[in-house]
């Protein structure tokens, strides 16, 4: 904060691209036909498996009310959580930044798809991946330092990555490739944007209401 009470802000606009969505595994219901049909894992991470803990203090996941523990708070990476289900539903993911006094939380909503929407194929393993670019217009200088400080590491100790590697090995042994499997790289998303401008969303990250009020008064 500047001496005159005004917020000392950067003269630059920053952006951070993230990946989020769900990875679904179809369950064997031959033994218990009335059991859950799928297990899904909700995830939030950076491109190329970047660890976002330098930027995010926690991730809140709001599932359908019928699911076990519908409100979950993930306080450390990897930011992912799993649940059983019968059907597709909407999920809300709230990103809480490490400096909550500077930036207000951002909530992103998406549908947890269990299989491809443009195909009749029902794979055993399916990646429903979306992308968004968080825009930080003229952030406070203190938060600017956080943005410039990372990422410094990749996601580790991820059960989701472990399951995906196991599935990939099984697919390779069977001689069948699974086109629905895998996370996008930055190059993939750039190609998607060129082909379709709506491939990646853009979300503006706002200052907290308290800082906005101080800025107005100043």
Number of domains: 1
CATH superfamily: YEATS domain
The percentage of residues in β strands lies in 25-35%
CATH class: Mainly Beta
Give me the secondary-structure category: alpha+beta
| Helix proportion range | 10-25%
**Shape descriptor:** elongated
Query: Averaged pLDDT, please?
Result: 81
Q: Going across the major beta sheet, what is the strand order?
A: 5-2-1-8-9
Enter the CATH topology name.
Answer: Immunoglobulin-like
Which architecture name does CATH use? Sandwich
Q: TL;DR of this structure?
A:
The chain is α+β, with helices and mostly antiparallel strands and 218 residues long. It is built from four helices and nine strands; from the N terminus they run ββββββββαααβα. The protein has helices at residues 141-148, 159-174, 186-195, 209-217, and strands at residues 13-26, 38-46, 56-62, 71-74, 79-85, 89-97, 106-112, 125-137, 201-204.
Task: Describe what this molecule looks like in 3D.
The protein has 218 residues and is an alpha+beta fold. It is built from 4 helices and 9 strands; from the N terminus they run ββββββββαααβα. The protein has a 5-stranded mixed beta sheet with strand order 5-2-1-8-9. Strands 4-3-6-7 form a 4-stranded antiparallel beta sheet, with no helix packed on it. The longest helix is centred in the C-terminal third of the chain and has 16 residues. The radius of gyration is 20 Å and the shape is elongated. The chain starts with 12 loop residues before the first strand and ends with a helix. About 2% of the residues have low confidence. Its main location: nucleus. Keywords: Nucleus, Transcription, Transcription regulation. This is YEATS domain-containing protein. InterPro entries: YEAST_sf, YEATS, YEATS_dom.
């Amino acid at each position: 904060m500047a001496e005159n009470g005004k917020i000392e802000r950067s003269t630059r606009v920053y952006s951070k691209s993230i990946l989020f969505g769900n990875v679904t595994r179809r369950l064997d219901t031959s033994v218990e036909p009335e059991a859950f049909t799928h297990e899904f894992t909700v995830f939030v991470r950076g491109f190329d498996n970047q660890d976002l803990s330098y930027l995010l203090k926690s991730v809140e996941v709001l599932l359908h009310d019928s699911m076990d523990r519908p409100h979950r708070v993930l306080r450390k990476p990897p930011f992912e959580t799993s649940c059983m289900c019968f059907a597709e539903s909407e999920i809300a993911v709230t990103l809480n930044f490490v400096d909550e006094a500077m930036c207000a939380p951002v909530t992103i909503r998406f549908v947890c798809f269990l299989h491809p929407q443009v195909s009749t194929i029902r794979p055993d393993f399916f990646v429903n991946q979306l992308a968004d670019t968080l825009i930080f217009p003229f952030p406070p200088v203190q938060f600017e330092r956080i943005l410039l400080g990372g990422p410094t590491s990749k996601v580790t100790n991820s059960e989701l990555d472990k399951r995906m590697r196991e599935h990939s090995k099984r697919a390779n042994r069977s001689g069948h490739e699974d086109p629905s499997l895998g996370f996008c790289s930055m190059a993939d998303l750039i190609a998607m944007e060129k082909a379709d401008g709506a491939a990646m969303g853009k979300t503006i990250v706002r200052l907290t209401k308290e800082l906005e009020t101080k800025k107005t008064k100043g």
